[in-house]
Specification:
40% of the residues lie in helices and 20% in strands. With 309 residues, it is α/β, with parallel strands linked by helices. Strand 1, helix 1 and strand 2 form a beta-alpha-beta unit. The longest helix has 25 residues.
């Protein structure tokens, strides 16, 4: 395999405290044939100046500025301008090991492999870290097998940033990130659905720094709504692609696991909302989950849950 170009897409919003570490880790990759698209999503701190400094130091860095439209829009902007054969994503408050890109490329092996997933470290801001218990059933999976593994939720998580994808998966199937919080819970299984083969590696190559202030820390009504919306979007994709009969049972199990995760998180997390409000949110979530369990109706909007949350 000739050295393929890999596009590394980094959305940035007011990340001045961590951005230099992130960019240092990306420009220091042992695999050099990369382009680094850094999208400032309306940052108002010193992030833009930091990106411009790195751009001046390394011609592989491309600074892209847009209005504040959210992380999904920033990633989509990067996809629209990416030129690589392969694409991966890094969050601005995280960082990667020196062999992050190389390890994923080493997993390709054959022309049929369309995606590679690596393990990652769970890390605290103080530097304590632990490899994630990444437990795929096999190292090499079919695309549908990878979807089923991703439906296990915990053992093959659908984070987009520990994976390498053939860019044609996005371009050939017009796949883009939806404007919701749990965008990758929808997008990663959808990408896997179009893959011939998916390879996984237990080697941790990504450092996911868990911050209390991060967007997906804890659950609010918006988190619950968007998580179930991600499931609903994939439900509609199964239906429109005439795959509903094949995937109905697996989708139902996935939806059950999502609800277990929602309920447990709401009841064991810190008391950020009154118990009465939590119970009401759980009740509404269960009603919404029941409403999106069966085959979609012809007039349903996949972006809107049948039950308001």
């Amino acid at each position: 395999m000739n050295d393929p170009l890999v596009s590394v897409i980094i959305p940035v919003y007011n990340a001045e405290r961590w951005l230099a570490r992130c960019l240092d880790s990306v420009i220091s990759q042992s695999y050099p044939t990369i382009e680094i698209l850094v999208i400032s999503d309306g940052s108002t701190d010193a992030s833009d100046a930091i990106i411009q400094d790195f751009q001046a130091r390394d011609p592989r860095v491309r600074f892209i500025r847009q209005d504040n439209l959210g992380v999904s829009a920033a990633r989509n902007r990067g996809l629209a301008q990416a030129q690589g054969d392969w694409v991966c994503f890094v969050d601005a408050d995280d960082y990667v090991s020196p062999h992050y890109v190389q390890t994923m490329l080493d997993g390709l092996g054959s022309e049929e492999v369309d995606a590679v997933a690596v393990n990652f470290f769970l890390e605290t801001p103080r530097g304590w870290r632990l490899p994630y218990p990444f437990v795929p059933v096999r190292k090499k999976l079919t695309g549908s097998g990878a979807v089923r593994q991703s439906f296990r939720v915990l053992f093959f998580p659908t984070f987009v940033w520990n994976k390498l994808f053939r860019r044609s998966l996005f371009t050939d199937h017009a796949i883009r990130f939806p404007a919701i919080i749990y965008e990758d819970a929808y997008l990663v299984p959808l990408l896997f659905l179009h893959c011939r083969k998916v390879v996984s590696s237990k080697q941790p190559r990504y450092h996911y720094v868990r911050r209390p202030s991060s967007l997906t820390h804890g659950l609010t009504a918006r988190h619950v709504r968007d998580y179930l919306t991600a499931a609903n979007l994939l439900r509609h994709d199964f239906f429109t692609k005439d795959l509903w009969d094949q995937w109905e049972k697996a989708y139902g199990h996935w939806l059950n696991r999502i609800m277990i995760q929602i309920v447990l998180t709401l009841y064991v997390s810190k008391r950020t909302m009154p118990w009465k409000e939590r119970r009401l949110l759980v009740s509404r979530a269960r009603m919404a989950a029941r409403a999106i369990r069966g085959k979609p109706g012809p007039d349903e909007d996949p972006r809107v849950l049948p039950v308001a949350i």
